[in-house]
Amino acid sequence: MPIVRPLNTDQDFQEAVDHKYKIRIFKDNHLIDSGTIVIRFTDDTIVTQSGVSSLDYHKREQCEFFEVRK
Q1: Distance (Å, whole) CA 37 – CA 30
Q2: What Cα–Cα distance (Å) separates residue 41 from each residue in 2, 11, 55, 60, 69?
Q3: Rounded to whole angstroms, how far apart are CA atoms 66 and 27?
Q4: Residue 66 — pLDDT band, cuts 50, 70, 90?
């Protein structure tokens, strides 16, 4: 069974970057991205990458982020 953990703090996001954890992203209670990794983050934006040229920018206050580990 996979472990699902919310990412809320800078420390949570830094751990996700360091270990390249796959994450799920929800916005307005809808899954908008899954299986992507965090490559960079600021106080208001989370940058994720799911492919070689696929970068996405998510507003931190508008989305919920969850780490998924097996």
Answers
A1: 18
A2: 24, 11, 12, 9, 20
A3: 12
A4: very high
